[in-house]
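Retro notes (design track)

What went well: tokenization of the new backbones is finally stable.
What didn't: we kept losing track of which sequence belonged to which structure.
Fix going forward: every design gets posted as structure first, then sequence, in one message. First example under the new rule, 279 residues:
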């Protein structure tokens, strides 16, 4: 039942990233990030409000799922179930030497909170000090996606309680007090990579971002910290969360886009421009 709920949320996030209700957009407008640098206090308030709105949409989206979007959670559910069934076998196919485990641990550190949080903060600070609006936005949306991902994976870790590959008999039993499913490293890495790739629309940037996220995720498997299913499913969720955060922000930005028109009235001796904001 917990696995079904996880797959349902995955499919729902996939729908949510492209189907943002008008009422939610209205609420977003009040919490929209400015294209200019903002003081810390109002910026933090906006950030918190956006995260709360994200969580509301993520956890209530199953109730708004349309029939055509069921393919997402059916697909993810099938893939995840297949991986879980073969997890014990796949986890024993690598040599699992000390060197493998040691190097995997070093690589996986790139996706830890101690790495992704400073990296995201650095992107924002670079944008702040160089007056680069895109970098500031990338940092903000990246941080928002990371917080969203952290909440989602912590909830499901508590629900699944799956044993890790080196715990118990190695079969990864659920509801045995473990913390293997889902992988936070995988979800967070792909959430940040998704935001960066969506922001910059560059093949090189996308390859680098997703390449690093894939490397971190794979290292969690080769380091025997997680089973394959613990990594693949959260990677998809992380990507969807990053895409959802970016797309939601873009929809709000377009709604708040200024409409500049010439205002020429010779009879009234008025010449200028009119600026209007259209929802």
């Amino acid at each position: 039942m917990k696995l079904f709920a996880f797959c349902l949320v995955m499919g729902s996030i996939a729908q949510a990233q492209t189907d943002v209700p008008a009422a939610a957009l209205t609420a977003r407008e009040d919490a929209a990030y400015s294209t200019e640098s903002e003081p810390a206090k109002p910026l933090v308030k906006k950030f918190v409000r956006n995260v709360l709105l994200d969580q509301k949409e993520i956890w209530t989206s199953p109730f708004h799922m349309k029939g055509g979007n069921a393919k997402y959670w059916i697909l993810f559910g099938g893939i995840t179930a297949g991986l879980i069934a073969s997890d014990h076998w796949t986890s024993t196919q690598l040599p699992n030497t000390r060197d493998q485990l040691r190097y995997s641990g070093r690589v996986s550190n790139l996706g830890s909170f101690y790495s992704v949080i400073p990296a995201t903060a650095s992107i924002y600070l670079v944008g702040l000090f160089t007056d680069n609006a895109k970098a500031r936005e990338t940092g903000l949306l990246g941080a928002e996606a990371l917080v969203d991902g952290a909440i989602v994976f912590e909830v499901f870790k508590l629900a699944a309680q799956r044993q890790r590959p080196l715990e118990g008999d190695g079969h990864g039993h659920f509801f045995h007090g473990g913390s293997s499913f889902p992988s936070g490293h995988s979800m967070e890495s792909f959430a940040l990579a998704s935001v960066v790739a969506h922001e910059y629309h560059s093949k090189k940037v996308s390859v680098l971002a997703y390449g690093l996220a894939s490397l971190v995720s794979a290292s969690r498997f080769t380091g025997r910290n997680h089973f394959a299913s613990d990594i693949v499913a959260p990677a998809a969720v992380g990507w969807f969360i990053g895409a959802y955060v970016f797309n939601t922000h873009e929809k709000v930005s377009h709604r708040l886009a200024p409409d500049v028109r010439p205002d020429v009235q010779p009879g009234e001796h008025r010449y200028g421009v009119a600026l209007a904001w259209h929802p």
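Added context from the reviewer: Residues 120 and 226 are 25 Å apart (CA to CA).
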